[in-house]
């Protein structure tokens, strides 16, 4: 079965520091890749996605992610953390073909930003 | 504004009772989904529907039922057969599958008393 692994269920950074959230997937074919953010007691909001083309993808709120096929990774980064970035982040991967795809989520990484 | 609405935001239920969670979208999306979220477990797919009057079981469909009579609406019923129904439930929709992202509603937190 296909899977998504987010390394680190909890990441803590200082305000202004680099944010790095890791995501690895298992797939025999190139998938479509997504990062979502969730604030407490709210739904998920799309940060960015990779479908085809440029492997470095820029999203909202200063986040970006790079698709590395050789490493089966799609890590999320932000150069400088802000207090408002504190939230839970989910990596998701869409596998399949034709009209039959499945979106699989990682278990999430809770980001804490310290002043 | 286009989006997905879920109601109610909080729901309390006694054991043995069925309860229905509402999900409505005005994005004109064909596909709709229901997920269950538990702490530390990510999102797990309950049911999904790619078109009106058709739906498929996800990974954890036991104890749940759905209907899709209208494109805009995809209600979820949590039945008394669901052994551990306390969770956060999220509804989503998408234009299609594959590379199309899913848009999420604000969620319903169900607590069984």
Tell me the quaternary state. heterodimer
Radius of gyration of chain B: 13 Å
Largest sheet of chain A: 6 strands, mixed
Classification by helices and strands of chain A: mainly beta
Strand-and-helix sequence of chain B, N→C?
A: EEEEEEEEEEE
How are helices and strands ordered from N to C of chain A?
Answer: EEEEEEEEEEE
Number of strands of chain B: 11
Average pLDDT over all residues of chain A: 91
Number of β-strand runs of chain A? 11
Largest interface: A-B, 25 and 23 residues
Query: What share of residues are in beta strands of chain B?
Result: over 45%
End-to-end span of chain A in angstroms? 41 Å
State the major sheet of chain B.
7 strands, mixed
Fraction of residues in β-strands of chain A: over 45%
Query: What's the average pLDDT of chain B?
Result: 93
What is the tally of helical segments of chain B? Answer: 0
Radius of gyration of chain A: 14 Å
Name the poorly predicted regions of chain A: none
**Low-confidence spans of chain B:** none
List the helices and strands and how they pair.
The complex is a heterodimer of chains A (115) and B (113).
Chain A: E1 3-7, E2 10-14, E3 19-26, E4 32-38, E5 44-50, E6 56-58, E7 64-68, E8 73-78, E9 87-97, E10 100-105, E11 109-114
Parallel strand pairs in A: 2-11
Antiparallel strand pairs in A: 1-3, 3-8, 4-5, 4-9, 6-7, 7-8, 9-10, 9-11
Chain B: E1 4-7, E2 10-13, E3 19-25, E4 31-37, E5 43-51, E6 54-57, E7 64-66, E8 76-78, E9 87-94, E10 103-104, E11 108-112
Parallel strand pairs in B: 2-11
Antiparallel strand pairs in B: 1-3, 3-8, 4-5, 4-9, 5-6, 7-8, 9-10, 9-11
């Amino acid at each position: 079965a296909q899977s998504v692994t987010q390394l680190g269920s909890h990441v803590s950074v200082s305000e202004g520091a680099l944010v790095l959230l890791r995501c690895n997937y298992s797939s025999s074919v190139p998938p479509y890749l997504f990062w979502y953010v969730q604030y407490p007691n709210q739904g998920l909001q799309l940060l960015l996605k990779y479908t085809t083309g440029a492997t470095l993808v820029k999203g909202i709120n200063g986040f970006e992610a790079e698709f590395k096929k050789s490493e089966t990774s799609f890590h999320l980064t932000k150069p400088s953390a802000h207090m408002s970035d504190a939230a839970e982040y989910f990596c998701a991967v869409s596998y399949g073909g034709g009209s039959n795809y499945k979106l699989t989520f990682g278990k999430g990484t809770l980001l804490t930003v310290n002043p | 504004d286009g989006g997905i609405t879920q109601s109610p935001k909080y729901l309390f239920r006694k054991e043995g009772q069925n309860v229905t969670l509402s999900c409505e979208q005005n994005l004109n999306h064909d596909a709709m989904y229901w997920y269950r979220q538990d702490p530390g477990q990510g999102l797990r797919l309950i049911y999904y529907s790619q078109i009106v009057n058709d739906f498929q079981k996800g990974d954890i469909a036991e104890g749940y039922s759905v209907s899709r009579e209208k494109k805009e609406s995809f209600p979820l019923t949590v039945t008394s057969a669901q052994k551990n129904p306390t969770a956060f439930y999220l509804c989503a929709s998408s234009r299609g599958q594959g590379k199309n992202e899913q848009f999420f509603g604000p969620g319903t937190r169900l607590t069984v008393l």
